[in-house]
Amino acid sequence: MTERDVSVLEQQLRAHPLVRGLEEADIAKVLNYARLVEFEAHDSIFEEGGSADTFYLVRTGVVGLLVSQAAGQQRRIESIHEGSALGWSWLFPPYVWQFSATAETLVRGIAIDAVGLREEFDEDPGFGYRLIARIAEVMAKRLHAARRHLINLMGT
Which pLDDT does position 74 carry in this prediction? Predict the structure, then answer.
């Protein structure tokens, strides 16, 4: 990666809502494991049952979060948009994706090596706590949205 590429990556990482405002040392740790990624519409980002070894920050585009149903069909349960984080299965053993994710539009983002990040959490629990607290806030919002969605479905 060229110096310019690293600079662009750092700028985009710092601008993402999940990272914005983190301590400089924390940003540097995340940056060590980050790379820019791009997915075309309909590209698979990850598959249910696969190894959850990457954490994604969506910069632009829309990602469909899918769950498997009977007969191999998948159902979209949520759309993840610009400024969101994608993928939590990397946080919990056995580190296997619980859902699938597919780009619904051109998606540009930042992929973060979750294995390396978990190792950093072990070495610096304070860093782990600060980042996981931010992730937990997003997870809580998603669970609340899922609850509202289920209530709407049941009321129909």
Answer: 85
AA identity, residue 40: E
Q: Which of 104, 42, 103, 99 is nearest to 75 (CA)?
A: 99
Q: How many domains does the chain have?
A: 1
Give tens-digit pLDDT for 23-80. 999 999 999 999 999 999 999 999 999 999 999 999 999 999 988 877 778 888 889 9
| Cα–Cα distance, 156 to 139 (Å, whole number) | 26
Where b means 16+ CB within 10 Å and e means fewer, 6-39 reads eeebeebbeebebbeebeeebbebbbebbeebeb
Environment class of 143 (CB within 10 Å of its CB; exposed 0-12, middle 13-18, buried 19+):
exposed
| Domain CATH for 142 | 2.60.120.10
Q: Domain span at residue 16? A: 3-154
Share of the chain above pLDDT 70, in %: 96
Three-state DSSP at 136 gives helix
- Give the pTM: 0.89
The label of the residue with tokens 């995340």 reads: 30
Cα–Cα dist 103/63, whole Å: 4
